[in-house]
């Protein structure tokens, strides 16, 4: 958790007023650009250890060097494409591992409320195939 808290917050939105007690927007979409949870890729996940290609990406990304996502050279951009392709293949090969690889809703929100409602409650959230 300490490592997570050192990362910058990409977006922080507060809506203090709503029209007639209703949210003015039709929907809110949260998109996490991180394709894989570091704890799954770099941790002791048996399924991940057995995934074809995992050893290569663990050596490449678990030694403290992340793939950069801003101002990428062609070489880094190609690496990102290769990583994305590997992630998609791995998720198709093992659906259970694919779900664990993705960031989960409850891990992404520190707090979310609308009036007295907890936005993190699954009643208010449409679940994606790889995120819960």
Rg on CA atoms, Å: 18 Å
Uncertain segments of ≥5 residues (pLDDT<50)?
Answer: none
Widest sheet, order of strands: 1-2
Largest sheet, described in full? 2 strands, antiparallel
The rounded distance between the terminal residues' Cα atoms is 20 Å
> Hey, roughly how much beta strand do the residues contain?
under 5%
Count of separate structural domains: 1
Compute the average pLDDT: 72
**Content-based structural category:** mainly alpha
How many strands appear in the DSSP assignment?
2
Number of helices, counting only DSSP H or I runs of 4 residues or more = 7
Helix content: 40-55%
Report the principal-axis shape.
elongated
Order of helices and strands: HHHHHHHEE
3D architecture notes:
This protein has one domain. The model has no long low-confidence stretch (mean pLDDT 72). It has 7 helices and 2 strands, in the order αααααααββ. The protein has 132 residues and is mostly helical. Strands 1-2 form a two-stranded antiparallel sheet.
Brief summary:
With 132 residues, the protein is mostly helical. The chain contains seven helices and two strands.
């Amino acid at each position: 958790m300490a490592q997570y808290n050192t990362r910058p917050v990409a977006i922080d939105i507060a809506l203090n007023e709503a029209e007639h007690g209703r949210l003015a927007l039709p929907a809110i979409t949260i998109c996490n650009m991180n394709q894989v949870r570091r704890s799954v890729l770099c941790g002791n996940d048996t399924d991940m250890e057995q995934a074809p290609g995992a050893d290569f990406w663990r050596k490449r990304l678990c030694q403290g060097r992340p793939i950069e996502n801003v101002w990428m050279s062609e070489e880094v951009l190609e690496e990102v494409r290769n990583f994305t392709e590997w992630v998609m293949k791995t998720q198709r090969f093992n659906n259970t591992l694919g779900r664990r690889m993705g960031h989960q809703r409850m891990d992404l929100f520190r707090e979310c409320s609308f009036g007295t409602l907890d936005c993190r409650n699954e009643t208010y959230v449409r679940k994606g195939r790889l995120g819960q």
